[in-house]
Amino acid sequence: MPGAKSPGFRQSMAALHTWVGLLPGWLLFLIFLFGTTAYFQQEISRWMRPEMSSGALSMKALAAADTLLHDRAGGAQAWTVSLPARGGQVVRVSWEGAEGEGPENEGKATLDPATGRDVKVRDTQGGNFLYRFHYDLYAVPRLWARSLVCVAALAMLVAILSGVVTHKKIFADFFTLRFGKGQRSWLDGHNATAVLALPFHLMITYTGLAALLFTIMPWAISANFPTRAAYNDVVYPDAPEYPAAGRPKPMLPLTLLAQRAQAAWDGGHVGGLTITHPGDVQATASFYAQRDRLGIPAPRLILSAIDGHVLYRAPAEGGARAAQDVMILLHLGTFADTALRWLYFVSGVSGTAMVGTGLVLWTVKRRARLPDPARPHFGFRLVERLNIAMIVGPMAGIAAYFLANRLLPLDLAERGAWEIDCLFLTWGALLFWTLLRPAARAWIEALALSALLYALVPLVNALTTTHGLAASLLAGDWVFAGFDFMMLATSATLAFAARRLATRKVRS
Amino acid sequence: MTLRTCSRILAGTLGAYGLTALATVAVSRVLIRLGADPVEAVTGVTLASFALFAGVSMTIFHARSTARAWFWLLALALPCGLAVLALSAE
């Protein structure tokens, strides 16, 4: 590019960065905030189901599932067991009859991963809802939600690249963080959080687009395949079917079949299995692997449930499909150990802060340039209020989601849906409040309220369960203790922000 | 906002998207005609399309004039379109 080093290039990129940053900025903030929680979605789910034991997954659970299915689901056509990736998660067991059959051969159960005990857990969507929200949103048709998320991600990609160009002295900027200097501080904060995890931001944006690959870029499929389904048929070929012979024969125990599958995968962990025609001489066990290793995922595997020999192994995927799979794994971070997951989490927090500070910077910068900064025009006031509602609102909502998990009656119908309603009711109430209050006060009040909600979470937890902070620390239960500490840390951060804003107000 | 700014924004967003989509189709068709596996070609080209979009979009916003931006957009779309037509599946 001829003018690549002229000031014109940086100026045009700066304008581009500002505009593609603001318009999808609120959506990006939500994607980053909720996506960041997803790195600990198993721990969040664990905390939201305090009835479970904290033990690691043991083969006892699979043996218990085997016994339960033999006892209760003898007449079923298919048995399914899904195993959790980490300890403290439910083992899900379900069975169903042949197609067109009534509900007499259907059922499901949740088992404790350590003991295999059939446990009754409270109805909640746990951390999974927060994870799903970051790309499916809520109450929006899925295709619309994902398309919006993809457009925001594409804008993010352009914003990052143009942002890099805009900051000529990118590393000098990184070491400059001046507090209490108004606009300059917001810009410093924006630059520092952006540069701190720049490779992460680029990676997470691009791999996110790869995960929703054909959502907004379906044209190569349209041009080369009759339908999207035809493409999927080639990518995920149907496994051969093994019809029932009608002669009963005892099957191998599920634990032994799982060991065979692991051996066939060179040690890959079982994520779930389906037994078709249980108890028949033609019974099969279909396995899929846990995605806990970085690399090409282990192929789907079908074993004979009678003698355990491999009947079918899904064909290996080509280079491009493998590249897409590895990109998705990098995005999800499911392969990461605890230390790496914390790194993912901290990078996610930095991304959330980068978008948040960028949004605030937009209004701070424009306020200074207004003809009468004391009385801004309607458009500016709207952006300012929406900033508060979209930055603090969802954070308060997540705290309310956790509180609702502890406070809603256990036998409430649609309890899981009520927890989600509490998140959005709190968020909506906060939006309403900010529209009524002067902007400077609204920031302080919204932040203070959120700080209070987060501080209440460990307190309510201690009062309603046996997993209070002191008990968790004594028991060495780091998931529960860590969760409570994270709530307190979030509360302290929000309270600090509210206090700084309040004292600054007094000074001016 | 001036008409020129609107035109520039249109070129940098929908224009860049259109060129990217057309290039994605053209390259996937060429690869398949050269013997590539259709799933691999479609997946690989689409994975690369987001980088292409970012490059095209930034170039358009940086172009010396809006007219030049549109000219290059159309000049690049033409061979892509011709390739798509020439290699259309019978």
UniProtKB/TrEMBL annotation, chain A:
Please tell me the species this chain comes from.
Novosphingobium pentaromativorans
| Segments traversing the membrane | 20-40, 143-165, 194-221, 342-364, 385-404, 416-436, 443-463, 478-498
Quote the protein name from its UniProt record.
PepSY domain-containing protein
Which keywords does this Swiss-Prot/TrEMBL entry list?
Membrane, Transmembrane, Transmembrane helix
> Has the keyword Nucleotide-binding been applied to this entry?
no
- In the UniProt record, does the keyword Membrane occur? yes
The record's listing under PANTHER family reads:
IRON-REGULATED INNER MEMBRANE PROTEIN-RELATED, PEPSY DOMAIN-CONTAINING PROTEIN
Q: Which InterPro entries match?
A: PepSY-ass_TM
From TrEMBL, chain B:
Respond yes or no to whether keyword Membrane is given for this record.
yes
Membrane-crossing residues? Answer: 9-32, 44-63, 70-89
| Keywords, alphabetical | Membrane, Transmembrane, Transmembrane helix
The name this protein goes by in its record:
Iron transporter
- Taxonomic lineage of the native organism: Bacteria, Pseudomonadati, Pseudomonadota, Alphaproteobacteria, Sphingomonadales
